[in-house]
Each structure stands twice: as C-alpha cells, then as structure tokens.
Automatic annotation (TrEMBL):
It holds the Pfam family G_glu_transpept. The active site is at residue 351. The keyword Transmembrane does not apply. InterPro entries: GGT-like_enzyme, GGT_lsub, GGT_peptidase, GGT_ssub_C, Ntn_hydrolases_N. This enzyme consists of two polypeptide chains, which are synthesized in precursor form from a single polypeptide. Pathway: Sulfur metabolism; glutathione metabolism. It catalyses: an N-terminal (5-L-glutamyl)-[peptide] + an alpha-amino acid = 5-L-glutamyl amino acid + an N-terminal L-alpha-aminoacyl-[peptide]; an S-substituted glutathione + H2O = an S-substituted L-cysteinylglycine + L-glutamate; glutathione + H2O = L-cysteinylglycine + L-glutamate. It comes from Pseudovibrio axinellae. L-glutamate binds at residue 434. This is Glutathione hydrolase proenzyme.
Length: 531
C-alpha cells in the first residue's frame, strides 16, 4: 500500500548491502562509517550506541544496561544480557526498616550496577573485528567538541530541569546555566569524553575497576546507598538463548527473563486466537483486543517475572497452550475485563533501541537504557556518568520473586527482538518506551504480518497503551475519533496521550529483491540509512 504523498510522512529506506536504523542521525552515520571501514554489524552497533550515550544522555548511557540479539546469515541466534545487579549488601528488610514502602525512581536504592559497557565489550569480542578505540572515537569527539541538540531531545530535556538541579554533578554537566539546552544549541560533555577515552584505551576494566568505579560507589554511598566498588568489579555480561514463538509464518525471538520479552510472546500467542487480519488496523475491535490481551499478559509479568533464578515458572510454562487457552477464554471482544493488572510500568521511560545489518548478513538488535529520563538524576562529579535507576523495577513485597535482594537483577523493561523465516533473518526490530515495549513488539509485528504494512508504516501506525497510575487507556492523537468513541462505548476510560507512545526501528530482509528495507520512528529524531 502506498502512503499519501500529499501529507507529511516517511518512506521506507532501501539499500542493497548494509543498513543502520537508530533514533539519532549522528548515531546512524557513525554506524555506517564503521560498516564502510570494514566493521561488522556488532562494531557498528557499539559505535552507534556510544554516540547515542552522548547526544541523547536522557535516554541511555554507560551508566545503564544493555541487551542484544544477534542473528547470523544462517538464522542462528544468540542473546546477551548485560543488566546490572543490586548491591550485594542490600536487603528488602534493611530498606523496610529504613521506612521504605517501595523503591521509587528517585530513591538512591534504585541505582543498580551499570551493566552496559561490559555488554558492549562482549559484543565486540564475540561478533566484532574492531576495538573500543576504533568504535568510540566518534562518541568521544561529540562529547569533547560538542553536538547540536535535536528537537525531540530538547523537548524531553526541558521537562527534567528541576530533576537535574537536585544533584550537583547532573546540574553541572547536563544543564546550561541552570536550564535545558534549546533546540540547535551545542552541548559539550568534557568529563564524559575523558571517561570514554579511558575506556577506549583500557577497555571496560577502566570503568569497572579503579578510580571510576570507586567514584560511583562513593557517590551512591554518600547518599545512603549500598553499591560498592566490588559490586562493579563483579559485573559480567552473560550469554542467553533466545525464546521463540511462531506468528503468521515467522519465528519471533525474544530474550528470556529478567527482561519482559516473554510478555510479547504471550501476547502473540493470545493474538493467534483471534482473526486480526480481518480487522481495521486503527479500529475499535483491533485496539480493544490488543489492550485486553496486554492486560492479561502484563498481569502475569507483574506476578511472576524476575531474575530467572528466582522465578517460580519457566518461560515454557508461561507459554504453554493450556495456560494460553485459559487466558484467551477470559477475553470478551465486546466488553472490558473487570480485573486490572497489579502494576503497569510507564510507556514514557527513556531507552535507546537501534539495529544494524552488515554486508555479510549479520543482524544486531540492541537496546540500552538508563530507565527514566536522565536515570537517577545523579552524575558522578569527576567522570560525568549518569547513573541509572533500574532498581525501581524491584518490589519490597515479601515473597515476591522480584523482591530486591543482594546481587539480584531486577525485572527489566528493555527488550530487543528478532524475526527469522526459513532459517534466515527476516526482520530485526525493537520498540522503546518502558513498559510499553512488549505491547509495542506485538503491535508493530501485527501491523506488518496481519495488515501488510511496510516497515515504515508499521512503525508510524497509531498506538494505544494503559496509563500506569489511572489505568486509563492512553491513545495517541492520530487514533481516529470514531475509534475513541467506540472504545469508550465498550467500557474503556480513554484519554489522549500527552506524549508519543514509544519509538521504534526495524530492518527487513527483502529476499525476493536481495535488498534491505529500513524504517525509523518519526516520534524520535532518527533515521534509517544504508548503502
């Protein structure tokens, strides 16, 4: 189907050999430069996420976590989890005795070990040809010499000024004279440049051992946290085998817990019980069923999902046909489920997803995040590292599998994805947006596989999601008014979302024409490019 060329919009990008799709043009450009220099998709992905960590510091960074799925030309898949753990010394009992009822995003106890850099290093070692010195030089240049702030980044930045002012390091490095930078203004991050230069010279050890690790631990402990230099030194990225399900002739791969990829697969299994192909893609029936399916899948997440070693049920059990049938029987196509999920995480948390395919046919699906906008809002005063607040995903509920404990990984929102068909990569894709991500994966896949949308149309298509506090159904402004009225008639409490819901990138392998087709979300500042 053609888009309306008289209206604003994007066309998908076509290229014969290699491609990158990211949320920032400078990151996409960095990836393509690495590919042209002979680097692999893994090398290019690390170069791109490093640039993102400088030019979108509210979204992602070396103070956050990273997950990847890599597809080889023969369709074989490998996964990596480089999410950080809670401090070894922390316990739920200590926090409760200290007066906490929950770990809020602004709590010092939400700061977990930054996992990303060990993940980048492992990705280079396992699938790359280049060194940190090769792939970090562009990010170092932007941090040292400056970068112009793009429109969406400026929009997001201005909403976090008061938050950043609470910490001396964050205020010093991430505000300009006490305010957010304006669109087009040049920002420089000299302390972060020096930190990246140390990593380029010495590897990730420069971050996890020595002065930087000691500074991170000292900053957290000075604010009452438990994180230690030993906690950072102990961090390692681990290999994972992706978990899969089939949908409309394609095998969809996600990573197993502690991430919420299993939720996307549960949603797809439930969607197979309904004829989505016959629905209006922006109509009442489609969005109603998507929301009801999400309620059930997310309810299971909030009860069962945790660090894999602490879960009571395996992914295989959660995806079992009997379990899916029981859930599907609860869905009424004409009414709203009376039972609401126990907890829903915001679709507004800040994350960077990107994907790269090289001329050998390797595909990398990578996601990296510091969780909320500017993470914890704490930046180390010498090294300029913004620390994540991923520990806010833990609970203090006694007996819950996701209860915080020393050395434990929290339930995690960020999830890369990959699709395979006939033992070859079919599409590499992902969706940003905190809790929205599993719903987003199911949504964009359905747009493509059920409704025949190309990779750009499937990303552009209007989105809906449930609000984390009011449980009202948020709908984007592009959702038709007649659909909103119909959803209200079914019993949904509907509100227009104040912000775009999520963001996405995708690259499709067009085997018939021996080309790659890329899409990038207009809700962000990025682009897909190839050659």
């Amino acid at each position: 189907m053609f888009r309306d060329f008289q209206r604003p919009g994007r066309s998908p990008i076509f290229a014969p050999s290699a491609m990158a799709a990211t949320s920032h043009p400078l990151a996409t450009h960095a990836a393509l430069e690495i590919l042209r220099e002979g680097g692999t998709a893994a090398d290019a992905a690390v170069a791109a996420i490093a640039v993102h960590s400088v030019v979108e510091p509210h979204m992602t960074g070396i103070g956050g976590d990273c997950f990847t799925i890599v597809a080889q030309p023969d369709g074989s898949l490998s996964g990596m989890n480089s999410s950080g753990r809670a401090a070894k010394a922390v316990t739920a009992e200590k926090l409760i005795e200290g007066g906490l009822q929950d770990i809020t995003p602004d709590s010092i106890h939400a700061v977990t070990v930054p996992g990303a850099l060990r993940g980048w290093e492992k990705l280079l070692r396992d699938h790359g040809k280049m060194t940190f010195a090769d792939v970090l030089k562009r990010a170092i240049g932007y941090a040292r010499d400056g970068f112009a702030v793009t429109p969406r980044t400026a929009f997001d930045w201005q909403s976090r000024v008061d938050f950043l002012k609470r910490d001396a390091g964050a205020s010093r490095y991430y505000l300009k004279d006490g305010r957010a930078p304006l669109q087009g203004e040049v920002m420089r991050l000299p302390a972060l440049a020096e930190t990246l230069e140390a990593v380029a010279a010495e590897g990730a050890t420069a971050f996890y051992e020595g002065a930087i690790a000691e500074e991170i631990a000292a900053v957290v402990q000075a604010k009452g946290g438990y994180l230690s230099a030993d906690d950072l030194a102990a961090h390692e990225a681990i290999d994972l085998s992706p978990i899969t399900t089939d949908y409309q002739g394609v095998t969809v791969a996600e990573l197993p817990p502690n991430g919420q990829g299993i939720v996307a697969l549960v949603m797809l299994e439930l969607m197979k019980r309904f004829d989505f192909k016959g629905m209006d893609p922006v109509g009442v029936e489609r969005f109603h069923l998507e929301v009801e399916i999400a309620k059930l899948a997310y309810s299971g997440r909030d009860r069962f999902l945790a660090d894999r070693d602490h879960m009571r049920f395996s992914p295989e059990e959660l995806l079992g046909s009997d379990q899916i049938d029981r859930l599907a029987a609860l869905i009424n196509p004409k009414a709203v489920l009376p039972r609401q999920p126990e907890r829903i995480l915001s679709p507004k948390s800040d994350t960077t997803y990107l994907t790269v395919v090289d001329d050998r046919g390797m595909a990398v699906s990578l996601i990296n995040s510091i969780y909320h906008g500017f993470g914890s809002g704490i930046a180390t005063p010498k090294s300029g590292v913004l620390l994540q607040n991923r520990g806010a995903c833990f609970t203090l509920e006694r007996g819950h599998p996701n209860q915080i404990a020393g050395g434990k990984r929290p339930m995690h929102t960020i999830i890369p994805a990959m699709a395979v068909q006939d033992n070859k990569p079919y599409m590499t894709f992902g969706v940003m947006g905190g809790g929205y991500q599993p719903c987003g994966h199911a949504h964009v896949l359905s747009n493509h596989l059920d409704f025949g949308m190309d990779v750009q149309q499937m990303i552009d298509c209007p989105r809906v999601f449930m609000d984390e506090t009011s449980l009202a159904l948020q709908v984007e402004t592009s959702v038709p008014g007649s659909t909103v009225d119909g959803l209200k008639a079914l019993g949904h409490e509907v509100v227009r979302s104040s912000d775009p819901i999520g963001g996405s990138q995708a690259i499709l392998f067009d085997r018939a024409n021996s080309s790659l087709i890329g899409g990038s979300d207009p809700r962000k500042d990025g682009c897909a490019l190839g050659y």
